[in-house]
Design goal:
The chain has two domains: about 140 residues, Golgi alpha-mannosidase II (Immunoglobulin-like, Sandwich), CATH 2.60.40.1180; about 325 residues, Glycosidases (TIM Barrel, Alpha-Beta Barrel), CATH 3.20.20.80. By secondary structure, the chain is α/β, with parallel strands linked by helices. The strands form seven sheets. The chain has an eight-stranded parallel beta barrel, surrounded by four helices. Helix content is about 25%, strand content about 25%. Helix 7 links the parallel strand 10 and strand 11. The site of alpha-L-arabinofuranose has 10 residues, from loops.
């Protein structure tokens, strides 16, 4: 294996350039907007995502705003979270929303069967979630229960949240909220090929239509109904859903996690250079998956009326030693920052069909934005990438090209040796996000506009002393962004050096 890795590293250097020329075609016809929603998040009743991570309750000694942790709330506001998916995941298909409304002391205490058998006290329910979305300025994305819930239950949940009148609206008012919420995104089930009911694609597509039919638009609220899509490369699932149900869905979801062997996922922090490149090439597989699923969708829907939503993605490692295996708590290193940057650069280019992506998960679970411990909170390297990249939200995608070499990992994966994307904001400024995946090589980057002559450039860089570096409660700023000033401007060209394993975002005016 060692020998193979050496050969792979050799392959990695052959054909790779330490220099990249990025041609930016800002003079091309204006492209689609990059939907803010592809910078979306996912929060599940799993481990310490909701309880501890978001919600501590009003009586907690941890500083809170109406029960929500104030530190997490402020960090998420700064992130500009466009959309938040809830309550699962697998949890969603065992969740009965009526358990989570009304007086807290009367709410049932249930075992969370999917995630470590933790007792769920339902103190965080529909009101707590939708009010939280309002506080952080995110659109809610509700995942409805198809696996173990009824059509009536889902229909009434929609009515409870969005209707102006009727007994569901009256019940909502009795529970403290007169005004209906605006809820656009409704997921009709989650992973119904697995934890959401172990259904076949054919069976689910019929079930989907029945649930979707009775989820009504109330009081001017227009639902965007999302059918459960495939796992990773299950193209047959996509084909069946598009064939049978495309007329009644606004979107189809897709799940893909960056993971190797599910039985030996590896440590989030103790990894080798070989592991690092394996992770990066595995994450790059998303490019092929998106293209292939979109090609299947194109065959049935050439007008691109049905959106693709990658509503779960991110890295999945072994849990941190000593933590509950069912709570999926993992640390987050500079490797995860590279994964985030590579994915977001890919997503920016596919937004004609890809209308949302939700990283799993927002707090304390899998590839999280923030980690908490008691009253402490740290921002992860992944958080920093999401914050640096949020300039692309609702900006016009700008076509560009950057011929480069390839990295071949020990497990046979392959990816380009340079990652980037470009957008233009409403004020005419350009944002260029770049990532250099090499561990041992800086890359000289030349950025050449068609005709635009930059007058001012500013930027930020995220890099670490070692790619294994992470932020913890003793060292919360070990990996943190810094200003990036070393850019030369000459006419239509910018020149800079991108250090090894680093992410840079430039603003060019
Ligand atoms: O994000 C963790 C789990 O991964 C979700 O509950 C499920 O949908 C997926 O399998």
């Amino acid at each position: 294996m060692k020998k193979f890795f050496l050969l792979s590293l050799l392959a990695l250097t052959v054909g790779a350039r330490a220099q990249v020329l990025v041609r930016i075609h800002e003079s091309a016809p204006e492209q689609a907007l990059i939907p803010a929603e592809i910078y979306g998040q996912f929060s599940e009743h799993l481990g310490r995502c909701i309880y501890d991570g978001i919600w501590v309750g009003k009586d907690s000694p941890i500083p809170n705003t109406d029960g929500y942790r104030t530190d997490v709330l402020e960090a998420l506001k700064a992130l500009k979270v466009p959309v938040l998916r809830w309550p699962g995941g697998c949890f969603a298909d065992e969740y009965h929303w009526m358990d989570g409304i009304g007086p807290k002391e009367k709410r049932p205490r249930l075992v969370n069967n999917n995630w470590g058998g933790t007792v769920e006290d339902n103190s965080f329910g529909t009101h707590e979630f939708l009010n939280f979305c309002e506080l952080i300025g995110a659109q809610p994305y509700i995942s409805g229960n198809v696996g173990s819930g009824t059509v009536e239950e889902m229909a009434k949940w929609v009515e409870y949240m969005t209707a102006e009148n009727g007994s569901m609206a009256e019940l909502r008012e009795k529970n403290g909220r007169r005004q209906p919420w605006k809820v656009k995104y409704l997921g009709v089930g989650n992973e119904n090929w697995g934890c959401g009911g172990e259904m076949t694609a054919q069976y689910y597509s019929d079930v989907y239509k029945r649930y979707a039919l009775y989820a009504r638009n109330h009081a001017g609220n227009h639902l965007f109904k999302v059918a459960c899509g495939p796992n990773a490369d299950d193209y047959e699932w996509t084909r069946t859903l598009m064939k049978n149900a495309k007329g009644s869905m606004s979107g189809l979801s897709l799940h893909y996690y960056t993971v190797g062997d599910w039985n030996h996922k590896g440590s989030a922090t103790a990894f080798t250079a070989e592991d690092y490149y394996n992770t990066l090439t595995r994450t790059y597989v998303i490019d092929e998956l998106l293209r292939n699923h979109m090609a299947v969708m194109d065959a049935y829907d050439p007008e691109k009326k049905v959106a693709l939503l990658l509503d779960e993605w991110g890295t999945w490692y072994d849990v941190e030693p000593g933590t509950n295996p069912g709570h999926l708590y993992q640390q987050n290193t500079m490797r995860d920052a590279m994964v985030a940057a590579i994915n977001l650069n890919i997503f920016n280019g596919y937004t004609e069909r890809l209308k949302m992506a939700n990283i799993a998960q927002m707090v304390n679970v899998l590839q999280a934005m923030v980690l908490t411990q008691g009253a402490g909170m740290v921002l992860t390297p992944t958080y920093h990438v999401f914050r640096m990249f949020n300039v692309h939200q609702n900006a016009h995608f700008v076509p560009s090209e950057a011929p480069c070499g390839h990295i071949v990992s020990a497990d046979g994966g392959i990816m380009p040796s340079f990652s980037h994307s470009v957008s233009r904001s409403g004020d005419g400024s350009y944002h260029i996000s770049m990532a250099n995946p090499y561990l041992d090589k800086a890359v000289k980057v030349e950025l050449l506009f068609d005709g635009f002559r930059p007058k001012a450039v500013s930027g930020e860089i995220l890099k670490a002393a070692a790619v294994q570096d992470f932020n913890d409660f003793d060292h919360p700023s070990r990996v943190a962004p810094a200003a990036f000033k070393d850019v030369k401007v000459a006419g239509k060209k910018l020149t800079l050096t991108l250090p090894a394993a680093a992410v840079v975002v430039l603003e060019v005016k």
